Amino acid sequence: RGLLKELLKRSQYSSEQGYPESLVNQDDMGYYGKIGIGTPPQYFYVHFDTGSSTLWVNSVYCNSQACSSHNLFNPNESSTYESNNQPFSITYGTGSVQGVIGYDTVTMGELNVTNQKIGLSTSEPGNHFARPLHDGLMGLAFMPDQETIVDTMIQEGVIEEPIFAFYMTGDSESGSQVVFGGTDPSQYQGQINWVPVQKSSHWQLLVMLYNVNRGLFGAQTSFLFFQYVFACSEVSSLPPLTFVMNGAHLHLPASAYVLQDEDSNGNCRSGISKSHEQYRNGLPYWILGDIFIRQFYTVFDQGNARVGFATLA
């Protein structure tokens, strides 16, 4: 009986299995997962961000307008919370947050991480984080000098492989999920096309697209950065964009990169806008966000420093 239990325990960590967490798609502008923090758990919806490393949530210490309509973590109501009073400050492409660091238990579905570093916000200037569902953010960046919750999962033996994968559906569809510790084979078909990470920060990849040569993946970013406006009547005739990565050709149809929100002039806005940082290391610099990731089953493999793409099932 003990051997069978051990074999079952090992089998759940197969690279083709893992721990799934359902995601909520908020108007194609962001994907949120429900997590519990503390003992007993206090629940929050967090945005998953591959461009930063810190897990933080709104707290009772925050008086900003952005915190007023969201769930707030109260460390005094958790018997497992520990504080070190270390401050943190993060500036994103849009929005910023300041707060203090603590440690507590984090749960996601069947996952249980007992000593996770958590940021408790004290200030969130502006209204970027005021949108519904945004109780906080879970950083999943690939940075050697900064640990994420994936690193904590590995250290505590919660998962065996430092892998997480995204399946993102459109706004009117259900079923979006993130999987930690493996993949969900039912969500994709064929082989996974692997692309090596060029630099171990922010999951930076080499991309070929006409005159575009470098991309940056960001699961928090809802728009590819490039700029176009199209007549809505022309969308069906627009060509797909083809991204070549490590020999694999990944096609993005116009129905994906043009947002169907016709204005009074009959124009549709593109999900491709200009980057605030146009060049890095002498090469054009793109951030490939949810609009791109939605078209593929996307796997982030930290242990092998690579990102994988597979055709959706």
Automatic annotation (TrEMBL):
Q: Does the keyword Disulfide bond apply?
A: yes
- UniProt domain Peptidase A1: residue ranges: 31-310
InterPro entries membership: Aspartic_peptidase_A1 (IPR001461), PEPTIDASE_A1 (IPR033121), Peptidase_aspartic_dom_sf (IPR021109)
Ordered alphabetically, the record's keywords are: Disulfide bond
GO terms in the biological process aspect are: proteolysis
Tell me the disulfide pairings in this chain: 62-67
Record flagged with keyword rRNA processing: no
Report a single Gene Ontology molecular function: aspartic-type endopeptidase activity
PANTHER family per the UniProt record, alphabetical: BETA-SITE APP-CLEAVING ENZYME, ISOFORM A-RELATED, PEPSINOGEN C
The similarity annotation says: Belongs to the peptidase A1 family.
- Protein's name in the database: Peptidase A1 domain-containing protein
Please give the organism: Astyanax mexicanus (Blind cave fish)
